[in-house]
# Entry
Amino acid sequence: MQVGSNLALTNTVVALKPQIANQPAGGGLYFLGVYNPNASVAFIQLFNAIVANVTLGTTTPTLSLGVPASVYTPLIQIPIELQFPTGICFAATTTANGNTALGSALVVGYGFD
# Structure
């Protein structure tokens, strides 16, 4: 397992696991730790895709997680590794499947392979 972080997750889709030249980089997700500085709930949308194939608000997320307002959510642990065979990418928005940016970016730590 490897660990990583994104210190400014916004409504721009980024690879959680590095993707080389938009080639598939599948893997698994073990945990997330998230700080949401906003006064409203935030959503992390996770996609089983390469970044180039995701359009926020159009592409259906594989998983969307709500993060409570103004709180650090420690280690959302996934009991069985969640597989993303094509690639793991994610973004943060105001709704579970929308594309609207939050007032402030999220800080996210994660474990993956």
Notes: The chain has one domain: 2-112. The chain has no helices and eight strands.
